[in-house]
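User: Let's play a game. I give you a shape written as tokens, and you guess the letters that built it. Ready? Here's round one.
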């Protein structure tokens, strides 16, 4: 529960915010402006302002008293309403007010020649998505149709249009694109990604290398996931490898044991990683995609056995007894009998992850002597 605030203190907090907003615009201070718009950040300054607004009910009068404030009244008033509603946990009202403020901000942004306010625009793009997600949860809880996230997507397409032009502002287009991807993946409307991707990858005004690394990594991650869904595995490998290589190695939350399992051919580690991060993978919509990696892990395990046999006896390296694979799986604490392993190997051969054939009587897989483990070639894997 908020502490008691006197009318005088409430007036002071509101005026202080208005002065900071006005100064941020006057001095083209994008960082300060972005902090003033971060409603969902739960910052102490914005929460105390929200309490002040709920005490002093006539902020409109304060704004209109000064020309420095009144020129931004179409941004400030709905921002205040969004803050008040957010503090009172009225998330649908907060989203609606914030969307109105954001539309007014975009009009101002169009008139500013330089790109000084890009950071503030990024915050708007982020906030509109987050508030929309929370508003939809509220709508669903009272039996109404969640519709705000779809509305946020429409708004961000307008923002993309503002940025998709010549000049320094265009470097912000990729950040907005990534926010759109997150919305489309959340809504299950990934087909809507195509038009934005075409704009980024074919428009002559964009040079991919000039975008910030953070945005390029996110873009490659989402477009890589799209390629996996479409079973374009070569393109997926290139894009996801780019994202993995360029993401901040200190951000351990971005990388899980899935990568290590693939490198080792460790089925136990893969399944443990999928179990450990199941909720996270389900929320981000990649769980079913990651489950498909199990065949690649089996391929890697068989390849490691092949390499070890080649070191011992090159002439017989291409003949792998099914019993050997069973023992390798048991060493990984994975129970499987010869029949199960034979079935797995049949799938690997059928899907062209392994080249070879069975010698059924001797329970041996005979691998091709030329490229027994084909590289991903971008062609769809038959189901």
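Assistant: Ready! My guess for every position:
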């Amino acid at each position: 529960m908020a502490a008691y605030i006197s009318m005088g203190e409430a007036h002071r907090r509101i005026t202080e915010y208005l002065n900071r907003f006005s100064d941020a615009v006057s001095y083209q201070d994008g960082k300060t402006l972005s902090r003033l718009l971060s409603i969902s950040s739960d910052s102490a300054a914005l929460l105390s302002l929200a309490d002040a607004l709920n005490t002093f009910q006539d902020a409109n009068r304060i704004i209109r008293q000064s020309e420095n404030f009144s020129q931004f009244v179409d941004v400030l008033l709905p921002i205040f309403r969004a803050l008040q509603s957010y503090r009172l946990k009225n998330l649908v009202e907060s989203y609606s007010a914030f969307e109105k403020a954001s539309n007014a901000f975009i009009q101002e942004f169009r008139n500013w020649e330089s790109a000084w306010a890009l950071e503030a625009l990024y915050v708007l793009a982020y906030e509109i998505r987050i508030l929309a997600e929370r508003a939809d949860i509220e709508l669903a809880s009272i039996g109404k149709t969640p519709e705000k996230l779809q509305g946020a997507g429409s708004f961000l397409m307008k923002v993309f249009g503002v940025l998709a032009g010549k000049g320094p502002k265009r470097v912000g287009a990729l950040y907005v694109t990534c926010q759109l991807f997150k919305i489309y993946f959340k809504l299950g409307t990934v087909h809507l990604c195509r038009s934005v991707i075409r704009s980024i990858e074919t428009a002559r005004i964009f040079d991919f290398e000039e975008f910030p690394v953070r945005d390029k990594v996110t873009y490659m991650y989402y477009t890589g996931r799209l390629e996996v869904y479409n079973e374009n595995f070569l393109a997926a490998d290139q894009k996801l490898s780019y994202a993995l290589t360029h993401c901040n190695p200190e951000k351990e939350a971005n990388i899980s044991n899935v990568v290590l399992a693939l490198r080792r051919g460790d089925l136990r580690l893969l399944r443990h990683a999928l179990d450990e991060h199941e909720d996270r993978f389900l929320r981000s919509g990649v769980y079913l995609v990651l489950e498909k990696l199990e065949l690649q892990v089996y391929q890697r395990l068989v390849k490691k056995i092949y390499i070890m046999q080649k070191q011992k006896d090159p002439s017989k390296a291409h003949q792998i007894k099914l019993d050997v694979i069973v023992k390798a799986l048991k060493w990984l604490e994975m129970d499987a009998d010869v029949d199960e392993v034979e079935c797995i190997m049949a799938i690997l051969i059928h899907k062209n992850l392994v080249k070879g054939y069975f010698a059924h009587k001797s329970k041996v897989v005979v691998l091709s002597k030329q490229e027994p483990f084909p590289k991903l070639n971008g062609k769809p894997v038959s189901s």
